[in-house]
Amino acid sequence: MTRKERELETLLTPTVRALGCEIWGIEYRPRGRNSMLKLYIDSADGIGIDDCERVSRQVSALLDVEDPIVHSYRLEVSSPGIDRVLFRREQYLANVGEQVDVRLAFPFDGRRRLAGRLAGVEGDDVVVEVEDHEVVLPFEQIQRTRLVFEGASR
User: Is 12 left (phi over 0), alpha (psi -120 to 50) or beta?
Assistant: First the structure.
């Protein structure tokens, strides 16, 4: 998570919680006029389109007032979905044993993408079982980890 994403999460968390939801994760992609802020929300009861619309309206109003992003951007609010992206250490811990697709910032053994079973978290590392051997990946090397719905083919 970037410094800007942490700043946005700190700003938005009270509003999202007041609406009965939690922030699952934030992705901010600054690309000039094509910048995007994607907010993933979740709740114990699940997330529907009405929840996304309600959170989007309130978050948009808060962002207009606080103005933490200098350039124009597109705001998207959605549920994490069944193939959710993992953002935090506790999310990795809660999903040990699940199939994951990991994209790396830099190649590891010549590969930037690994698919396997999330075997655990050890300190600042994520352990993924790939083809009968364990691969230890530092959190800072991971660009994105997504759960793989086992009924889906990729």
Answer: alpha
Q: Taking the domains of the chain in order of start, what are their residue ranges?
A: 3-78, 85-147
Q: According to CATH, what is the number of the domain 3-78? A: 3.30.300.70
Element (H, E) at 90: helix 89-94
C-alpha closest to that of 39 among 18, 64, 20, 21 = 21
Q: Assess contact for 61 and 51: CB atoms under 8 A.
A: no
Three-state DSSP at 55 gives: helix
Determine the distance from the C-alpha atom of residue 105 to the mean position of all C-alpha atoms in its chain, rounded to a whole number: 15
Fold for the domain defined by 85-147: SH3 type barrels. (2.30.30)
| Band of pLDDT at residue 76, cut at 50, 70 and 90 | very high
pLDDT digit string, tens, across residues 84-112:
999 999 999 999 999 999 999 999 889 99
Q: Could you tell me the end-to-end alpha-carbon distance of the chain, in angstroms, rounded to an integer?
A: 26
| Distance, CA of 71 to chain centre | 22
User: pTM (2 decimals)?
Assistant: 0.87
CB 52 within 8 A of CB 78: yes
* Candidate from 25-29, 74-78, 106-110, 118-122 with smallest mean pLDDT: 106-110
